[in-house]
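Q: What would this chain look like folded?
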Amino acid sequence: MPRFAALDCGTNSLRLLISDFHLDGDVLEGTELARLNEIVRLGQGVDATGRISDEALRRVKLTLARYIDLMLQENVQAVRMVATSASRDAENRDDFFNLTADMLGEHWPGVKAEVISGAEEAALSFRGAVEDLSPEDGPFCVVDLGGGSTEVIVGDYHGDIAGAYSANMGCVRITERLLLSDPPTEEEIAAAREFIAEQMADVRAAVPLAKTHTLVGCAGTFTTLSAVAQGLETYDPQAIHMSRLRFEALRSLCGTLLATPKGRRAADPVIHPGRADVIGGGALVVEAILDTMSAEAGLSSIVISEKDLLDGIVAGLVDEHLH
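A: My prediction, written as structure tokens:
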């Protein structure tokens, strides 16, 4: 049976998922062969300059080359690569897309990074994030907190979306724009909270948050917070996936991380060095999400999912090639 690969280049990370599919009787079963995450910081400086830097493009090229080697080794037949917030915003985005077209197209003709809308990003993230949850636990609110944007989606297990919104707030964008000190000052934190509150007002207007029965957080800020909250000595996706965190404890952790200099954050073995300087910005978004979902839906805990946009992309490839 075929093997599929999904690539996602966001503002902060370039990620890869390779999955193999086979029939178990009449049921199509998927097996994860590789899930990799490299901090390439494509969006570094884009909010200020409007351009992707040459250094960021170099980091993408090196990481993508390693990923392609692995995909060839695993005999991947079909690939889809998506690009999100940073590549939508940059005036020289064609440099990035031409790079991916040259590198991927050499082995999978016609394949290159595709800009996807916030709406499609939300739908794909939702599909992946709820995959291992029970349908009875819905409706779900999935929050995919990225480097440049945060997608908030409410829907049921079968993908009937009641509302979705892509907010221009993410851990990199907030850090580079508003959290300039290390650790950030009270004034910087207040300004960041004000900015995030404006974004959350748009989320509340667009998405029926009150319908939510289960809140689900996905992507690097949430999974890292779960690892820290659990006191893990190494980053363990199995321990993180489907973990449940109480709002009260998570708020306390977010406050601690905000007040901690980035050098001390980076010393924690479960915080990737490339995430240590921006997780404070992510923590502020998390705080706002918790406060909003407590007020709108009466919730007091969140489920953390290691599955997200990548899993939604692979599911789409399965639909296209096997159904």
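The longest strand covers residues 27-39.
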